[in-house]
Design goal:
about 500 residues; alpha+beta; Uridine Diphospho-n-acetylenolpyruvylglucosamine Reductase, domain 3; Vanillyl-alcohol Oxidase, Chain A, domain 3; 2 domains; binds flavin-adenine dinucleotide
């Protein structure tokens, strides 16, 4: 297998492939396999030479799990991009190097269907689906992992021999636990996923058009905007309360509003605006959005702008909310700190948010509150490794900077903001009545740091809750030599 070393003119380009510019790796070489057999060969060579491999698919990791100076070989999946319908399994088979945008395009144009997955088209399915994967249509159709039928994993056994394992959700599959671990266990843990098979639950037969949900013909997006300067603490609190109350009332699978998804962007005042962006599907989309506006937006009592726009599905999926993902947004260094909420923010948490968002600091940042739940909450917590099944919001404190001088103020701001938000539970969203841990697709190494997590709840319980021992058993069985590891990887024994 060809090794791309620093002497190769492709190396610089490949080494630069990562979303979060906060981290830089320096692998001895990078390989670009084009088949499962090539992945096996490349990995065997790495293991035999006692080097440390990491696998990369889309390069959208938010932490430095791939761009890691101690990683010696990057196995880059981006040339494995086939998407087919496998009639023998009645499922779509998708190579790990496919991006989410390409998956949307091919599934829609080929068969009229879609997988409810993440928001940015550049994410790789390789590192995405196995982390659960939520997105714009998750309230109506569930997580991407809820539609996972099977995986093909290249793993290393106790003797250091590389093997290919097929693991499906079928009850009589001896590798069913490995499939389960890939429904929310997160990337870089058990081996290299080479292929995913996708088929929704309770679907049988081999008709591709009914194997995954039919894509909506159109959807309606909405954008609500306020001037930050118009807010005082009382109107800010009204907005956050109204949004949280809506999420609480409509977080279950039987809500008549599961087709609506929205994010409340509580930007730092430096940014000048507070916004809600979202969408609804179906013939009644505009009515659903207008009812949401009446419920959440109007009670704030401030002037706002409102824009509704009908979009064809694929055009939206390939370029959603263009202003969010403008050219250059991927040049930044970033820190994202995620938390699931079961109940709305408390008065104290809203006061904390107001304090941090109006603090006079030279940073750009925000707290984003995304609607969650809907049919995601129809699935029992142990059914998949995505354990949070009664959350109503996914909340993230974010910051980004371009210049090195921005690092310290931005990190201090976002870390202390999050810590103070969860001051009543040791600085982290412990599973309790109000909060429910965090999402592994948004990994945050601070959760494993005694400086930032002063609760008695370890990082792995925040991410996996009661499923963690099961993931440990899978790790022991399928990666006994701990070939695949990073700062938040599953450890067979603690
Ligand atoms: C702009 C942006 C938007 C995002 N939006 C969403 C969203 O809407 N919903 C959501 O759920 N998440 C979202 N995420 C998070 C994203 O899902 C995760 O970062 C995901 O892990 C990225 O996968 P990747 O293949 O692109 O990343 P990579 O950097 O290639 O890999 C991420 C991790 O997965 C491992 N991995 C990669 N490929 C494989 C493989 N084939 N087999 C086993 N392990 C593998 C890597 O080793 C690494 O640990 C977003 C991230 C960004 C940067």
């Amino acid at each position: 297998m060809e090794k791309i070393t620093p002497a190769d003119h492709r190396y610089a380009d490949l080494a630069a492939k990562r979303f979060n510019k906060r981290y830089t790796g320096k692998p001895e070489y990078i390989v670009l396999p084009t088949s499962t057999a090539a992945v096996v060969q490349a990995l065997q060579e790495v293991v035999d030479s006692q080097r440390r491999p990491v696998v990369r698919s889309g390069g959208h990791c938010l932490e430095g799990f791939v761009a890691d100076p101690t990683a010696q070989v990057v196995i880059d999946m981006q040339l494995m991009t086939a998407i087919e319908f496998d009639t023998t399994k009645g499922a779509f088979v998708v190579d790990a190097g496919v991006t989410v945008g390409e998956l949307y395009r091919r599934l829609f144009l080929g068969w009229g269907v879609f997988l409810p997955a993440g928001e940015h088209p550049g994410i790789g399915v390789g590192g995405h689906i196995l982390g659960g994967a939520f997105g714009f249509l998750c309230r109506e159709y569930g997580l991407a992992a809820d539609h996972l039928y099977a995986v093909e994993v290249v793993r290393v056994n106790e003797q250091g021999k590389v093997q290919v394992v097929f693991a499906s959700r079928e009850d009589d599959d001896p590798h069913q636990e490995l499939w389960w671990a890939h429904t929310g266990g997160g990337g870089g843990n058990f081996g290299i996923v080479t292929r995913y098979w996708l088929r929704s639950a309770n679907v049988s037969g081999d008709n591709p058009a009914t194997t995954l949900p039919q894509a909506p013909a159109t959807l309606t997006t909405f954008r609500i905007g306020w001037e930050w300067k118009d807010f005082d603490e009382a109107s800010f609190a009204t907005l956050v309360h109204r949004f949280g109350d809506w999420c609480l009332r409509h977080g279950g699978p039987n809500s008549p509003y599961i087709s609506l998804f929205g994010i409340l962007f509580l930007n730092h005042r430096n940014i000048g605006k507070i916004e809600i962006k979202g969408l609804a599907t179906g013939a009644t989309a505009a009515d659903v959005i207008n009812a949401f506006v009446k419920d959440v937006v109007e009670p704030v009592g401030l002037a706002y702008t409102k824009q509704l726009e009908e979009n064809a599905w694929l055009q939206f999926a390939l370029n959603p909310f263009p202003e969010l993902f403008q050219p250059g947004f991927d040049k930044a260094q970033a820190k994202i700190k995620d938390a699931f909420f079961r109940r709305p923010l408390t008065d104290d948490q809203i006061a904390t948010a107001y304090r941090y968002l109006t603090a006079q600091v030279p940073i750009g940042g925000m707290i984003g509150l995304a609607t969650y739940g809907g049919v995601v909450n129809a699935i029992p917590p142990d059914h998949t490794a995505s354990a949070q099944r009664d959350a109503i919001m996914d909340v993230a404190c974010n910051t980004g900077w371009m210049d090195p001088s921005g690092e310290k103020p931005s990190l201090d701001w976002v870390r202390n903001f999050y810590k103070d938000l969860f001051a009543a539970s040791g600085g982290v969203p412990v599973p309790n009545e109000q909060t429910d841990g965090a999402m592994i697709n948004h990994p945050d190494t601070d959760l494993a740091s005694a400086d930032w997590n002063t609760s008695v709840t370890p990082w792995y319980t925040l991410y996996y809750k009661a499923g963690h021992p099961r993931l440990q058993a899978v790790k022991a069985a399928y990666d006994p030599l701990n070939i695949f590891h990073h700062a938040l990887s599953i450890q067979a024994a603690l």
